[in-house]
Write a structure and sequence with these properties.
Cytochrome p450, 45% helix, two-stranded antiparallel sheet, mainly alpha, 2 domains
């Protein structure tokens, strides 16, 4: 099923590439098709191949969906299991941005990312040769006790010290600002439209898990019913 979906998406993108090459528009595919990559001095600029563009889009589509809904699920789990902090956010919605950042630090949607060392270096006394693949654990970095006190605790009131859930430097997430906006709007709507939102007291074994992607597979919730007049 996954292979079939990937192939179908590839066909759609290939069709768009052919169209945008002839008639460019104000969209991402047009930018990728006509982008020129500068090479060494004296060489002609290169353009991305069709397969490179397709691969980029295949990466971008799930990156902009799965990570966001996993992050929202993890943030909801954190708030619903910390009712005092949930109450504070309900009372003061201006706390939502810092709740989002703490949620990203506490339970990022992706556990680690791989990078290739470009030069010989050393990390914590361990030699790393150029060309070596290094798996960097996002959760370990985000819970470094030298950077945060009591790092395993979810606390939206802790002093902001940054996190690496969106990556860093040249590898920072392209959709960082859009993701934050999505999370803010989604949380605002959920708290507004679902009064007294809370975990289902009859639900069992609700937790965040995963060795690569982190989320709660099920997050059963209940809320108080409202009339149409109250929703207005």
């Amino acid at each position: 099923m996954l292979d079939a979906a990937s192939a179908a998406l590839g066909e759609i993108v290939h069709t768009l590439i052919d169209r945008r090459r002839v008639e460019p528009q104000d969209d991402l595919i047009s930018i990728l098709v006509h982008a020129e990559l500068s090479g060494p001095a004296g060489t002609r600029p290169e353009r991305l191949t069709d397969d490179e563009i397709v691969s980029f889009v295949k990466l971008l589509v799930p990156a902009g969906a799965q990570t966001t809904y996993r992050t929202l699920t993890n943030l909801l789990y954190a708030l619903l299991t910390h009712p005092d902090q949930l109450a504070a956010v309900r009372q003061d919605p201006s706390l939502i941005p810092q709740a989002i950042e703490e949620g990203l630090r506490w339970e990022a949607p992706l556990l680690f990312s791989a990078r290739n060392a470009t030069v010989d270096t050393e990390l914590a006394g361990c030699p790393v040769r150029a060309g070596t693949t290094v798996n960097m654990c996002t959760h370990s970095a985000n819970r470094d006790p030298q950077r945060w006190s009591d790092p395993d605790t979810f606390d939206i009131f802790r002093p902001f010290a940054g996190h690496v859930s969106f990556g860093h430097g040249n590898h920072i997430c392209l959709g960082i600002h859009f993701a934050r906006m999505e999370l803010r709007v989604a949380l605002e709507i959920l708290l507004e439209q679902l009064p007294n939102l809370r975990l289902d007291p009859e639900a069992n074994d609700v937790h965040i898990g995963g060795l690569t992607s982190r989320t709660a597979v099920h997050l059963p919730c209940v809320w108080d019913p409202t009339t149409s007049e109250e929703r207005r």
